[in-house]
Specification:
The chain is built from eleven helices and ten strands. It is α+β, with helices and mostly antiparallel strands and 372 residues long. Keywords: FAD, Flavoprotein, Oxidoreductase.
Amino acid sequence: MDFALTDEQRMLEETLTRLVADQVSAEQRRAMLAAAPNRASALWRTFAELGLLHMPFSEDVGGLGGDGTDLMIIMQALGRGLVPEPYLAGLVLPGQLLAVTANSEQQTRWLAPLLEGEHQLALAWQEIGARYDAFTVATQATQQDDQWQLTGRKDVVLNLEAAAGTLVSARLANGKLGLFIVPADAPGTATHLYRTIDDQPAGDLTLESVTLPLTNCLSEDVSYVLAEVLAVGRAALCAQAIGAMEEACDQTLAYLKERKQFGVPLSTFQALQHRMVDMHLHLEQSRSMAILAATSLALPASERDYKIAAAKAYCGESARFIAEQAIQLHGAMGMTEECYVANYAKHLVMFDHYLGDSDYHLETVSELLTVA
C-alpha cells in the first residue's frame, strides 16, 4: 500500500511540528493546564487562524474538506506534544455530528462559531453501566407542549466545563436514539467537574427535566451517524497515540544514552537494547494499524468498524506496553512529575479507555467476524 503524503500534507505536518515545538514545551503545557478551561487559549486562536479548525469538515459546511489522513497528521502532531487543547473532544466529535444532523439555522448558531474558534462544544454519549456502548442509553427525551424534556445522566463528558453547549444522546418514546444540543446555562443541568488521570478536563452531566425548544433537537434517529462519528474519533485517537508513543520512545532512548552505570551509558547494555527494540516494534506495528484506521473511514460500515476496532485494540495494548517500559527504563524518577515521560505514560494508559478499551474492541472484532 502506497501511503506517501501529498505536498500539501507534508506542509501541514511540518507546520504543525514547528508550532507544537514552539508553543507547547513542558512549562507551557503546565501553564495551559492551569489556565481557566472556559477561556479560548492563544494556541486555540492560532489553530483557527491556520485553518486547523476547518480542516476535518467538508466544504459544504464551511470546512476545508480534509480526509482521514489529514486528521491523522494533525492528531499525531498533537499527541507528540501532549497538546492539552480539546481538538477531538471539543471540535471534531461534536462538530462532525452537527455537520451531518444540523439544519442551516442550527449550523449558523452552533457550527459556524465552532469552526471560527469562537466557542467549543462537548459530546455526552457515555452512561454508567453501558461499558462504552453508545447505544445503551437510559437518558430519556419526551416531547410535550412543543418542547423537549430530557432526564438522565451522562458520565465522563470531556471538555464539559469549556463547552458552550453539549450534544446529548437520549432515548425517545418510539425507542429511537435522538440527539439534542443542551446550552451550558440550560436550567435543570448539574455538573460534577474533575480531571482525568492524564489531566483532561471532564465531568458528569445530570439532566433533571431539562426543557428545550424543538429547535434544539438535531436528530430523532442519530444511531447511524453517531456510529460513523465515533469511528472518526477512534481513528483520530489512534493517530494521537502514535505521536505520544514516538515521543515516549525518543525520551527513553535519550535517557539511556545519557544515564551511566559502572561508568558506561545504559544504552550499551544488551538487555536494555532489546527492550528498546520491543518498544519500537510496538510503535511501528501500531503506526501501520493507525494508518489502516485513517484510510478505512470511507469504507462500508461493517468493514470500517472491523478495521478501526482492530486498530484501536492493538494501539491500546501497545500504548500501555510502551508506557510501562518507558517508566521502568527511567527507574524511580520515571514516576515523578519532574520527569516529563511520566505525562506521556499517563496519557498512553488513558488512551486505551477513551472511546472504548482494548477488551471492548476485541469483542467488537469477534462479533463482526462471526457475522461475516
